[in-house]
Write a structure and sequence with these properties.
With 101 residues, the protein is an alpha+beta fold. Helices cover 33% and strands 12% of the residues. A hairpin with a 2-residue loop joins strand 1 (42-47) and strand 2 (50-55).
């Protein structure tokens, strides 16, 4: 199989029109084979004049509470709000001083 034949075999190409609202319709065959459903979000990129649509990865929705305890270690005590503010302030001060050198 030649390169052109392999490329053609692996590529689905159809012609679509851009609407006055800037919308296009992805052909049904492509939607079905790629498992695209209504509401699928895409990254839109332009690479060397070629417009590409890449489905954005789907991550489960999380809440702040889901991350509680992620940094916990045995023997590590919980910091008070004042200790946390001092630690953050110290880090910011160090970074600020580093930019002045």
């Amino acid at each position: 199989m030649s390169y052109f034949q392999a490329y053609h075999w692996a590529t689905t190409m159809e012609t679509v029109k851009l609407s006055s609202k800037g919308q296009i319709v992805i052909p049904k065959e492509i939607r079905e084979t790629q498992h695209l459903t209504a509401g699928t979000e895409f990254f839109v990129t332009c690479v060397q004049g070629e417009i590409r649509l890449t489905p954005a990865p789907v991550y489960p929705k999380t809440k702040v509470g889901d991350g509680l305890g992620m940094l916990a270690r045995k023997g590590r005590g919980r910091l008070s709000d004042d200790e946390t503010m001092r630690a953050i302030g110290g880090m910011l001060k160090e970074r600020d001083e580093a930019t002045k050198r």
